[in-house]
Each structure stands twice: as structure tokens, then as C-alpha cells.
Amino acid sequence: MLKKIPKLLSPELVKTLMEMGHGDELVLADANFPGQALHSRVVRCDGIGIPELLDAILELLPLDHYADHQAVLMSVVPGDPAVPAVWDTYKKIIAEHDQEAVLSHEERFDFYIRSQSAYAVVMTGEEALYGNIILKKGVIKSAG
Predict the structure, then answer these.
(1) How far is residue 117's CA from residue 59's CA, in Å, rounded to a whole number?
(2) Strands ordered across the beta sheet of 71-74
């Protein structure tokens, strides 16, 4: 155990976050996401919801403000009546850690393509429809 690292984060996930560089992206995938089919670097966080995991990750991960947006949500498929209430939860959690963060949306298959070039995919137990989110890692700025 270490101080100040949220207990929800496994050693493998902390290692993954530390290995990521500026501009690398991390997919937080819901339980229905085809993570293993899309990526070779998958971290399992089964049984954990994305809101709790997102909050824990943002304790450590700076977001990229050199990019137009810092996070990406998967758009609802046209014709699907789903209303992803979880998005409001994500926006609230992100704002608690970074008030200037901007979220965007990508069409489902564009989201899958983007996920393939992410640094890693984190598979969760999240059951909310359209619960996937991609975070873009930023830099920690020196005080000097």
C-alpha cells in the first residue's frame, strides 16, 4: 500500500497511468465494450463502475489542455432512444477535478477506431448504456 493512491486503483492500472505520456489516451470501457477485440493492452477492473474509477483516476491523471477536448464520449446511435444519464455524472466528476475540461462526442465506430490507438483500454463492470469515455493525458506543470 502507498499513501494518497486511491485504493480502487490496482497496481497494474497505476503502472499503466504512469507509463502514459502527454497526449496518450485511456479508454474507460463499459461491460459491453469489445476491449479485447480492439486492443492488446487491456486492464481489467471488473465489478467497478466507471464513475468511481473515473474519480479515482483523475486524482492522479492530468488532462490535456493543449487539445480541443480532454475527454470523449461515445455518441448515441441514431434511432436509439437511450438517454445516457451517466454522462451527467461523468461531467460532474470531471468538473470536480478540472473545471476547464471540455468533453466531445464521437460516433460509435469512430470511437472504436480511436480506441485502437489509445494507450490502453480499461474494462470495467459499468452497465450504463453508452458508458464509455476516453481521457487524454496532459502534463503536470512545474511551479517554477
Answers:
(1) 24
(2) 42-45, 120-124, 25-29, 133-136, 71-74, 103-106
Helix pair 50-57, 86-97: axis angle to 10 deg: 10
Q: Is the pTM of this model over 0.90?
A: yes
Kindly state the cell numbers that stand for 63: 488532462
Which residues form the catalytic set? Answer: 22, 64, 112
- Give the residue from 28, 25, 42 showing the smallest Cα distance to 117: 25
Element (DSSP H or E) covering residue 110: helix 108-116
Over the stretch 126-135, which tens digit does the pLDDT of each residue have? 999 999 999 9
